[in-house]
Design a protein that fits this description.
- The complex is a heterodimer of chains A (109) and B (118).
- By secondary structure, chain A is mainly beta.
- Helices cover 5% and strands 46% of the residues of chain A.
- The mean pLDDT of chain B is 96.
- In chain B, strand 9 and strand 10 form a beta hairpin.
- Chain B starts with a strand and ends with a strand.
- Chain B contains no helices and eleven strands.
- Chain B has 118 residues and is mostly beta strands.
- The chains are: A mainly beta (109), B mainly beta (118).
- Chains A and B meet through strand 7 and strand 8 of A and strand 5, strand 9 and strand 10 of B.
Chain lengths: 109, 118
Amino acid sequence: SVLAQPPSASAAPGQTVTISCSGVTSNIGYNDVNWYQQLPGQAPKLLVYGRNQRPSGVPGRFSASKSGTSASLAISGLQSDDEADYYCSSWDDTLNGPVFGTGTKVSVL
Amino acid sequence: QAQLVQSGPEVKKPGASVKMSCRASGYTFGSFGVSWVRQAPGEGLEWVAWISPYEDNRNYPQTTQGRVIVTADTSTNTVYLEVGSLTSDDTAVYYCARERAASAYDVWGQGTLVTVSS
């Protein structure tokens, strides 16, 4: 994986957990970052794409930001259903293809 | 609603090839590119191929180029992925996914488990 994420993150129910995603100029620096949620045994689900846009049905508790070559996803009002693996992705101009993050496992304490 | 339905699990021996399918429905097939993304057991996501079905444009990462072929049949709205010279490193769940924007995949298939074992 080209984009670096912390392996785990956790917070209590109702709190906010933030996940980081670190890349370089050729990917996050020049391109949009997208975020996915993957529940155990399921396919990934697109949570946020482009400039903090959410597909229909994704609650506003999920919000993303980007600065330079790093991005982050914040999950507010944390719920037990949010326990999952989260991945970032971006286009890489040098590799001429999409790249994914290493993934972060979110736990609700 | 838009949906991608993939073919069933496969078990192959090292050195063999595997071909899997991904049938689209509920949207205009030619309006979106389709990527294949794989996930080895306990690992992260890895992009393996992309196709624009009507234009027949294709893209592969250097890691799979030459061993992977992606094709599309516009008469049946189906995308195929063939992986050759299989090794145990190819054991993974293979997902097809509709590309909403660059690296943003908004519709995913249920996944096809490919197991490579002697």
